[in-house]
Amino acid sequence: VHDSKQFDYVLSREPVDLVVVDLNLGREDGLAIVRNLATKSDVPIIVISGDRLDEAEKVVALELGATDFIPKPFGMREFLARIRVALRERISSPRTREQRSFRFGAWKLSVKQRRLICAERGEVKLTACEFNLLIAFLENPRNVLSRERLLLASRVRGEEVYDRSIDVLIMRLRRKLEADAANPRLVKTSRGAGYFFNADVDVSYGGTLAA
Question: Exposure of 85 by Cβ count < 10 A (0-12 exposed, 13-18 middle, 19+ buried)?
């Protein structure tokens, strides 16, 4: 984008995973853009600087909310590596994980609201263990998860989850997600290995589910 007005327009309408601000481009104050963005979003901000960014300005950029800064000139491999690091740190932060929403088929799940909604059936209530189990599947679509891993993932503080109880949880989750729980299409069994979630899953950050 070319200016802060256009950037605000994009930010309000599209999910943004990372922002790169070049302080030497455009007529606007790049540091002001960093400050304004940091007050309204937790998206990572990488500042690209030229000769005019001295040590004091670097400190100001970081204090205003920049995640990283890269002085010119720089190589593309370094640039991409820093982007990967910033994205990895964002994904792993507790605050970001709490802001996630998952979409699969006609379903959407909000971690923050702890709500599961189907476009065709409306809201479906989940117990704490069922919610944790579904999150484990959505974080690892099409990957086989062992019974032991699912037991750990579904555990709720203060409650014991036993080996056979994972089968009960799987059955309950299938009844809530599947059109035919006896012939599941989403939560599949990998015999002798565990279970896997058989769907494409999209992840977004921020926003809430409508009632």
Answer: middle
What residues have CB less than 8 Å from 142, skipping those under 6 apart?
A: 196, 197, 198, 199
111 and 209 in contact (C-beta within 8 Å)? no
Q: What is the distance of C-alpha 96 from the center of its chain?
A: 6
Q: For Cα atoms 102, 9, 52, give the angle at the middle one, nearest 5 degrees.
A: 105
Return the domain boundaries, the chain: 4-92, 97-205
- Let me know: does 109 contact 138? Beta carbons within 8 Å: yes
Convert 123-172 into a string of H (helix), E (strand) and C (coil): EECCCHHHHHHHHHHHHCCCCCECHHHHHHHHCCCCCCCCCCHHHHHHHH
Is the whole-model pTM more than 0.85? no
The pLDDT confidence band at residue 208, using thresholds 50, 70 and 90, is low
Nearest to 194 by CA among 111, 129, 109, 136: 136
How big is the chain, counted in residues? 211
CATH of span 97-205: 1.10.10.10
Class of domain 4-92: alpha beta
CA distance 20 to 53: 16
